[in-house]
Specification:
Length: about 190
Amino acid sequence: MRVVDEITRTRARNALIRWRCERSVASSVQADEALRERLAALLREEPFARARVLGVYWAIRGEPQLAPCYERWESEGRTLALPRIGEDGALEFGRWRRDGDVRADRFAIPVPHPFEGVEPDLLIVPCVGFDARGFRLGYGGGHYDRTLAQRPIAAIGVGYNACELERFDAEAHDRPLPAIVTESRVIRTR
């Protein structure tokens, strides 16, 4: 675990992203499978089992690959939604369908096309880094932070064990996540 303060936040973010992207394929696949199993189990527990619309993501830059679960979650009766950045910097979510089309947005991130807006009642949020208190270190754009500040949506973080930070200075707008899932455990903060 690393201690990160305001000054080293950008360096820590860059180092963790680099680590994720440079891992071996075998290591990534194994960790992602274990993480998906733990996440699926958590989604069967209350209060998360009640969620009908999941805000998910399309993995980039070494993030945990959750897409293998999307069809199963959809077949279980859940609606899945992928994010795009709205005009105010908060995220908007569009319905994902297994047989639907996705197109790259201005940031080269796949977004459903056509974009049918939906409101998630649970977000699954990728973490560049995180700490045991449930605070997440993201990419620095504040898009998830703005989204969570505007709407009271439950959120679960996902990240790798090696990306856990001993602590870092949470900013005024940061909100701890109630749970963070890694390849070996679920960290519950509430």
